[in-house]
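If it is no trouble, might I ask you for a protein's amino acid sequence along with its backbone structure tokens?
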Amino acid sequence: MTSSKIMKYGSKVLREVAQPVESITDEIKQIVDNMLEVMYKSDGVGLAAPQIGISKRIAVIDISPHEPSAKAIVLINPEILELEGQNEAEEGCLSVPDIRGIIKRSERIVVKALDLNGQEIRIEADGLLARAIQHELDHLNGKFFVDHLGRLKQQLIRKQLRKIESEVKENRQ
């Protein structure tokens, strides 16, 4: 049902637009529990369902390793309502190992989503939390942080990306 393996760049599911969650079932709750477990085991601050091979609009985020007052957030069917400002910071991704890049993102966002109880939540975020939410929502829309890099930087990492893709293809066979 759910996987503890993180899908890597080149996996088809990571380029698909994830499907909305129709209702919060025990299966969805189990997926979220698994996602949190995988994220923590991998030392990540966020994870989207497609990253474990599930094409559903679910993301989990916990920036507490960087901001101790933070706690885990579950976003089901998230939607960004507002974007404000801009900043640049280095990003990496569990699905694109060993590659990092400076990415422009909105500094402040407002997002709405459902929580695990099916209640609508609204989160105003800035800094690392805003960045993490935008990064995970990219995954739900079939995008990677490397897609935001400039043409020159993309050319510089192309060989690394092809290597990851070829490993994915080898593992399928």
